[in-house]
From TrEMBL:
PANTHER family recorded: REVERSE TRANSCRIPTASE ZINC-BINDING DOMAIN-CONTAINING PROTEIN, REVERSE TRANSCRIPTASE ZINC-BINDING DOMAIN-CONTAINING PROTEIN-RELATED-RELATED
Residue ranges of domain Reverse transcriptase zinc-binding in the record: 94-176
Name of the molecule in the record: Reverse transcriptase zinc-binding domain-containing protein
Pfam families, per database record: zf-RVT (PF13966)
Species in which this protein is naturally found: Thlaspi arvense
Length: 288
């Protein structure tokens, strides 16, 4: 706080000194030990152009009294100040305060393909977990000491890891190959290559958005199918999963068209001849 006449500045609560709040600096027993009431203002301690303070009984009390004796009240009103980036400001906004108090970490190259504008939130969250390799795949469960079968639940031909599941597994690779090619992109063979390829895409047009939505929907659908096989003992063919992804992506693209008022005739093609013609039409799959 910028101290002026001291009539607004509260002695115990406001940050008027370099020691911070007096309630923290001197403790909860401060008002009783110092002899200054809990609701006192700085102006209450200033009389006849001088400070009237009780005798100091500790080093901390002496420190704040020495600092206070270097100050003089004036006729100017007190004013609250915001210190942001070591600069005093009379006004503030939440964004600047938030950016000041949060921990700053180096930006990552993949943030744009995970947290892009639009898309399905739960798909983004799951993709983020996979990028960080935090999903409970079987290799992780075994590393935690759990006695589980290490084989992939989708192909049963290799141990289940993040990289195998996406997309070294023959089951997931067949799905991703079909989906990516229908988005007019060539699928990459490994998780790392896929992520690097997506990060290398330039621009933010509908083609890139379509690929990212489809990629995240594929990850989500494969993980759900894996969990259904584990917990429900049910299984779907790759064709059924592809159709499921088509519905997810189609619905999301319909919402995109409604909000952006864009009506491209053929920017989404899973081989089912979907077309967007008006707001009232959803992307339809003739084979579903």
């Amino acid at each position: 706080m910028k101290v002026g006449n001291g009539q607004l500045c509260r002695f115990w609560i406001d940050n008027w000194s370099p020691f911070g709040q007096m309630t923290v600096y001197l403790g909860e027993e401060g008002p009783r030990q110092v002899g200054i009431t809990s609701n006192a203002k700085l102006s209450d301690l200033w009389r006849l152009d001088s400070w009237h303070l009780p005798p100091a009984r500790s080093e901390k009390q002496l420190n704040f009294q020495i600092y206070l004796s270097s100050m003089q009240l004036s006729s100017v009103e007190d004013a609250y100040e915001w210190w942001i980036d070591n600069k005093a400001k009379n006004r503030h906004n939440i964004g600047s305060i938030y950016s000041t108090i949060i921990d700053h970490h180096p930006s990552v190259t993949w943030s744009g393909v995970v947290w892009y504008s639009g898309g399905i939130p739960k798909h983004k969250f799951l993709t983020w977990l996979f990028v960080l390799n935090r999903c409970p795949t079987r290799d992780k469960m075994r590393s935690w000491g759990l006695q589980v079968d290490p084989l992939c639940l989708l192909c049963a031909s290799a141990n289940e890891t993040r990289d195998h599941l996406l997309f070294e597994c023959s089951y997931s690779w067949e799905i991703w190959t079909r989906i990516s090619r229908c988005c007019s992109h060539q699928p990459q063979g490994t998780w790392t290559e896929t992520l690097e390829y997506l990060c290398s895409l330039q621009g933010s047009g509908i083609s890139k958005k379509l690929l990212l939505i489809s990629w995240q929907a594929t990850i989500y659908s494969i993980w759900v199918e894996r969990n259904h096989r584990l917990h429900r003992n049910t299984a779907k063919s790759t064709t059924m999963i592809i159709n499921q992804i088509a519905r997810l992506v189609g619905t999301e693209l319909q919402a995109f068209v409604i909000t952006t008022h864009l009506y491209p005739l053929r920017f989404f093609n899973f081989g089912f001849r979907e077309q967007l013609r008006s707001r009232s039409e959803f992307l339809r799959d003739e084979n579903l």
